[in-house]
Amino acid sequence: MYITMVSAECAPVAKAGGLGDFVHGLARELLARGHEVEVILPKYDVLRYGQIEGLRKEVRDLWVPFHAEWLHCDVECGEVDGIRCWFVDPHSPQSFFARGAIYGEPDDAVRFAFFCRAALEFLVKSGRQPDLIHCHDWQTGLVPVLLWEMYQGLGLTHPRVCYTLHNLGYQGVTDIGVLHQVGLDPRRLMTPDRLSDPANPRAVNLMKGGIVYANFVTTVSPRYAWEIQDSAQGMGLQAVLRSHAGKFSGVLNGIDYATWNPALDRHIAQSYGPESLPGKARNKAELRRRLGLREAAKPLVAVVSRLDGQKGLDLLRHGLSYALAQGCQAVLLGSAQDPAVDAAFRRFKHENEGNPDCHLELAYDEELAHQIYAGADIILIPSVYEPCGLTQMIAMKYGVVPVVRRVGGLADTVFDANFSDKPFGERNGYVFDHLTPEGLESALSRAVGLWFQHPEYFRELRLNGMRVDYSWARPAERYLDIYQRMRA
Ligand code: ADP
């Protein structure tokens, strides 16, 4: 099959979170199975250029219609981990993708609407006819809309569109002016069964457009698929999803074991696996040295997270303080987009300054993330909602025991050491329900207690997590099955 992904992110060159990992991981697995795969991305100024091989200008004069003018673009091509990526580079006064960040600009809706139009313009002008276009989240929700409303008529007749929802917390609700800008007719599209936002019918909801117009819609875990149709987690799109239930399903994400594997990881001091678990101790010592933590017989409780309301910010802080009070060491690696959240965590860091058992790193640091997974004993994920969550799956591969709230993909992947109905060999962490300090303590105290009092059982839990197969093999099969059904 010939599959074109259109995405705002692809790890490691453009990654803000799990979306980047998804596109990279699925693309690589599909390539390994002999399919033809390419990814179209914006050419951000913040791309990690060192990770792109053979970057070259392939298309010099792509003129994209936008808001009563034609914007001049180049399209560059390069390989990212063997994946062919196309980078759309507009030379416009708005400098859409030269903003020093992937997201967070006041005109994000316009930037990504332009990207959708440019991606389709590129496909049609270069004569491509993929079997499948796979697009993601609100940023590329206009791709299926533009395809069926406009580009089919311009000759892009072959592709079908699969649309994946990674996070309903961001739907791209914006002014209808964006439709004019990409050449769509708001009078035709701003209806309850098309793009008007359910809560504010005068605004356009780009994610809803993707759901309505795609041939098939997926989300990133079965539990989240249920939550967003049947609970407030749908954030206003519950009814839309229910009315499209016949073309909607949840597929649990995988993780890329070439990137996330303690036996192969170039970023860590000592490689290890289930059969060589003592190697993990050296990584713990190395992590302590790097972060200035003292050597002590204490479990290391870690957080690796975007610092966003979705992640349960109060409980993250409470959990780390509670861990310190229970005699653990605490490490956080987190980055906040919101200046108020950043300031709150800087205060928290200041309060813990000088504590030899605590280190808070307020940054985005891929290499340190690897080292934390390799060195930590317990990882804390008290999310308010969590569509899939890769952190717990990565952590388990590195022998870290997750303590998580029972939501979304966390509920599909972490099974409580004491209370799960699974056999012991399938239990791999600790789970709590209530979004309260007491809820979190009820799970974290059990994990810490086991580390101190029953190290042999703690080791078994680590091993249970390390043995689970969360590779892309199974999810890629599900996606291929979905793609094939869409083509049938
Ligand atoms: P989300 O997509 O909501 O951010 P996921 O758990 O699906 O959450 O994916 C998070 C990914 O981002 C993981 O690969 C994790 O290691 C990585 N990550 C999160 N925060 C940081 C950070 N501050 N530095 C480095 N990597 C991070």
Secondary-structure content class:
alpha/beta
Overall 3D geometry? globular
Strand content: 15-25%
- Poorly predicted sequence stretches spanning 5 or more consecutive residues: none
Query: Helix content range of the residues, please?
Result: 25-40%
CATH fold name of the largest domain: Rossmann fold
Question: Strand count, sense and closure of the main sheet?
Answer: 9 strands, mixed
What is the top-level CATH class of the largest domain? Alpha Beta
Strand count:
17
Roughly how many Å apart are the termini? 13 Å
Q: What does this protein look like?
A:
- Strand 6 (about 130-135), helix 3 (about 140-150) and strand 7 form a beta-alpha-beta unit.
- The protein is built from 17 helices and 17 strands.
- By secondary structure, the chain is of the alpha/beta class.
- It is globular, with a radius of gyration of 23 Å.
- The strands form three sheets. Strands 3-4-5-2-1-6-7-10-11 form a nine-stranded mixed β-sheet, sandwiched between helices. A six-stranded parallel β-sheet has the order 14-13-12-15-16-17, with helices on both faces.
- Helix content is about 40%, strand content about 20%.
- The protein folds into two domains: about 1-255 and about 475-485, Rossmann fold, CATH 3.40.50.2000; about 275-465, Rossmann fold (3-Layer(aba) Sandwich), CATH 3.40.50.2000.
- Adenosine-5'-diphosphate binds near residues 304, 333, 366 and 388.
- Adenosine-5'-diphosphate binds near residues 17 and 366.
